[in-house]
């Protein structure tokens, strides 16, 4: 579904990505883990066209999307739930979700998908007309994921969904991600919380200073001695 080959990205004089290659097969959860500053978010932002690749290739469903404008990539079904959530604080929960469906014209489908978001995140239904900025951090994360789902993604990319959340909420968010995947949405997950990310991944990659240094199944990397020492506390 998604194939990234030899992706190179520079920020000014900084060589941020150094030949990153990865694949996401349809129906998978693929996790990209690594320390802060490893290049995880840059990889996602490059895939979504938010950062321009210097060289390399990004294919989505067989189509070259390298450096396409972000709105064209979104139209093709690749959507991002960004780091930091970036919800609209002065809009209600319902309005935030509707913005996620801005490219769609199918009113019955939008209503159905909104109901499915409320089933995934019952707290959002309870706060339907509450402004996004008044929600807790966990509720804002739920809203950010729900907003992305309203675009009916073929592939949902998530950037640090557990950042700043209490452990119980992290568990809840990851359980919902598994439910979203079981319902048919392919997921590319960028996470510092390596243990949680690897537990739900069929395939995973470890990124260090802009390079993929390890790749394998989530369970293999979870049990890899180097990964355990570097990211899982021994």
Write the layout of secondary structure elements.
Elements: E1 2-11, E2 14-24, E3 29-33, H1 40-47, E4 55-60, E5 63-64, H2 70-75, E6 78-81, H3 93-100, H4 107-120, H5 122-126, H6 137-149, E7 155-159, H7 167-182, E8 186-191, H8 194-199, E9 203-208, E10 211-216, H9 218-222, H10 225-231
Parallel strand pairs: 3-8, 3-9, 6-7, 7-8
Antiparallel strand pairs: 1-2, 1-4, 4-5, 9-10
Helix pairs in contact: 3-6
Structure description:
By secondary structure, the protein is α/β, with parallel strands linked by helices. It has a domain at 1-77 and 186-234: Rossmann fold (3-Layer(aba) Sandwich), CATH 3.40.50. It has ten helices and ten strands. The protein has helices spanning 40-47, 70-75, 93-100, 107-120, 122-126, 137-149, 167-182, 194-199, 218-222, 225-231, and strands at 2-11, 14-24, 29-33, 55-60, 63-64, 78-81, 155-159, 186-191, 203-208, 211-216. A hairpin with a 2-residue loop joins strand 9 (203-208) and strand 10 (211-216). The chain is globular, with a radius of gyration of 17 Å. The model has no long low-confidence stretch (mean pLDDT 93).
| Whole-number mean pLDDT | 93
Structural class: alpha/beta
Element-level helix/strand string: EEEHEEHEHHHHEHEHEEHH
Q: Rg to the nearest angstrom? A: 17 Å
Instruction: For the largest sheet, list the strands in their spatial order.
Output: 6-7-8-3-9-10
Largest sheet: 6 strands, mixed
Strand coverage percent = 25-35%
Task: Name the overall outline.
Answer: globular
| CATH homology-level superfamily of the domain at 1-77 and 186-234 | P-loop containing nucleotide triphosphate hydrolases
CATH class membership of the domain at 1-77 and 186-234: Alpha Beta
CATH architectural label of the domain at 1-77 and 186-234: 3-Layer(aba) Sandwich
